[in-house]
Amino acid sequence: MLSKKERVAAVSVAASGTLACAKFVIGVAIGSLALISDALHSLIDLGATLVTWYAVRVSDRPPDASHHYGHGKVESLAALAETALLFLLAGGVAVEAVQRLREGGSAPTFSLLPFGVLAIEMVVNGWRAHVLKKTARETGSQALEADSLHFASDMYGSVAVIIGLGLAAYGYGWGDAAAALVVAVIIAVLGLRMSRRTIEALMDAAPPGVRDRVSRVVSGVAGVVRVERLRVRTVGPRHFVDLAIAVPRTLPLDRVAALKGVLQDAIAATLGDADADVTITTTPVALDDESVQERIMVIARNRGLAVHHLTVQAIGERLAVALDIEVDGDMPMGAAHEIASALEDAVAAELGPSVEVETHIEPLQAPNIPGREATPDRVAALARTLSDLAREHEPLRNVHDVRVRETPEGEIVVFHCHIDPARSVIDVHEAVDALERDLRRRFPEIRRAIGHAEPRTADASIPAGAPAG
Q: What is the band of 111 on the pLDDT scale with cuts at 50, 70, 90?
């Protein structure tokens, strides 16, 4: 099935052939150089339209192994070929018109027939130029735009031919040659306009104003520190954007990926091109307001290390850093110490040699531990113990939702408890840690206890210290 561009081009072929033949036959019959020139112009338009028809069919092909950016450039080549034909025609007509003006020549035979054909052609060409221009804007087709200019020049040329034939009819024999010269000038001017735009497209010139519009949109997206490189070019109707931006180095990779998606959608909307090909390169940079904690976390993350309990203290003019680092529990201690020392050296290199860095090595929890649910009696016993122990820790109330899993390495206990929402995080954290330690002292077979504290609401119905269930 033909595309919209192909259907419009096909209609242009039929119209060009019919009108061009009619004008040429009449021009030869009455001896009018202006009409013959206009007919030749239309015949060249016919050839150019055939080229356009072929170009728009090829340009719609998707990218392949040999044409990574698609086949859109063929439209620019077709437009350039059409422009060359226009210049050849303009030159030939101008030479013949000037020669007739200098040497004189017989006036064309008067007839109403050419006026009628020209009037019909003007209506048809005006309609075709409008349809082609509209379709070219909708599809971004340079070849159709060139065809539109051809038919517009035909319409303006027809006006000049009518004036020339009218002058000749009133006895001004030079009117026909002068009209032919005007047609040549019109053709040349339109050819210049089209050639400039076509050559810019072939030279990958950025469309006017597009770079500034895209840059403003990109700079306004949260997470973009600055635009480092922005290149835009078009291949047929499709835009290709090469964008390099700086982003905070503290931004996680999933956030960077999401940011790229937001930018691609914003750029496509700005260009009005849903098929725009946008390539985005990100460079992580340190921000001036980056905290010491953020800088240390970036260092650890770049080394693939899990760290927690990071504290930074200012001791006079010296910084003291302490953190916990998790490594494989089966790793030899000597190897683990080397990893910790390398992290300490990296932090010192970032913050200065006077910084004091202390690391506490912990075993990394196994990612997948096989296990099973404990018996109901075991869960109930641990729930009662937790409720009894919670009475000794003031911020904690209403221990509930106790779950116990048995693993080859020991039991894992998870529980929830209510706390006063006005309490500080550090108070609650210390109380939950203390409850976890008490439970493990009571039951050494428990490998790990995990407490989840949640604000106590007005409708909490579990009595203080009551067991779950």
A: low
Residue 464: which region, alpha, beta or left (left: phi > 0; alpha: psi -120 to 50)? beta
Using the predicted structure, report yes or no on whether residue 466 has a pLDDT greater than 60: no
Please check whether residue 125 is in contact with residue 153, taking contact to mean a CB–CB distance below 8 angstroms. no
Phi, psi of 230 (to 5 degrees): -145, 115
Residues 253-282 pLDDT 10s:
889 999 999 999 999 999 888 778 899 999
Chain-centre distance for alpha carbon 405: 48
CB atoms near residue 323 (< 10 Å): 23
pLDDT at 110 over 70: no
Cβ atoms of 141 and 135 within 8 Å: the answer is: yes
